[in-house]
Amino acid sequence: MPTKNESLWLASGQAGENQARALTLPIEFTRVVVGDANGNYPPMDSSIIAVVNERLEGAVISHEVDPNDSNQRIVQMAIPPTLDFDAVELLLFAKYGNTEFAHTYFRLAAPYPIRTTENGGAQVKLKYTIRVNQNTDVNIMVSPNLAYTTEEQVNSKFKSVEVTANQSGLADKLHIFKAYADVIMPLSDDGSFLAALVDSTVDLSTGDCRLAAPDGEQMEVNGKLVSHARIVENLKRFRFERIGGVWKA
């Protein structure tokens, strides 16, 4: 077990910054993925592009230049109280244009309890110092609507939606299936996301929990265009993004 919180500037993060500079585009820090690593401690590896077992997604609230080192940024992230688990690892994402990439990996010194509000939890705010190239153009505020918000506003943005019957999905929300149902993806702007997972109480061997493309559209799953995507695993978080007018997994 590690003795301190650790962070690692990933190979994909360095490559993403290099490409952004080549295209004279700024990068933005977009989101943080939080996982429990199935209770283990993965090795620190610069080739990481995904956490071992993703549980939920948090927001990048703000970041600023480290006053003592122009090759560093101080990033503040918020984790919503929407699931019960012990966080072990985090993955910070960035993007240039519409291209998103894993930038920095974090491994916590000890499992950090994330709890729902029903179980006494609250929004968790984490602040880390990360490495960047001082020549990279970094947009200082990623999400102006989250930069100086109250805890209530951040929780509202990431509040999950319970699915108990067929319904239209909501952009930028986590949809938790509590029963067999179809969720129809919304006609939203590029850059939106929709996340979904199936609760442990739902038996996927006897019924379907599906995400459906909007009327007249198809969505892209594993490189193929389909009208529906069936979720086949409980408690695994699936994420779709709206890119070029198409929902893509």
Write structural notes for this entry:
It is a single chain. By secondary structure, the chain is mostly beta strands. The protein has 2 domains: 148 residues, no CATH class; 90 residues, gp9 (Jelly Rolls), CATH 2.60.120.640. The protein is 9% helix and 45% strand. It contains 3 helices and 18 strands.
What are the main properties of this structure?
249 residues; mainly beta; Jelly Rolls; 2 domains
Q: What's the helix and strand layout?
A:
Elements: E1 6-9, H1 11-22, E2 28-35, E3 54-66, E4 69-79, E5 85-96, E6 99-114, E7 124-131, H2 144-147, H3 151-157, E8 161-163, E9 167-168, E10 174-177, E11 181-184, E12 193-198, E13 209-212, E14 219-221, E15 224-226, E16 228-230, E17 238-243, E18 246-248
Parallel strand pairs: 8-10, 9-11, 10-12, 11-13
Antiparallel strand pairs: 1-6, 2-3, 2-5, 3-4, 4-7, 5-6, 12-17, 13-16, 14-15, 17-18
* General form: globular
**Average pLDDT rating:** 85
Query: What is the ordering of alpha helices and beta strands?
Result: EHEEEEEEHHEEEEEEEEEEE
Number of helices: 3
Biggest sheet descriptor:
7 strands, antiparallel
Spatial ordering of strands, largest sheet: 1-6-5-2-3-4-7
Structural class: mainly beta
Low-confidence stretches: 140-157
Distance between the termini: 33 Å
Number of strands: 18
Instruction: Report the sheet-strand fraction.
Output: over 45%
Oligomeric nature of the chains? single chain
Radius of gyration, whole Å: 18 Å
Number of domains: 2
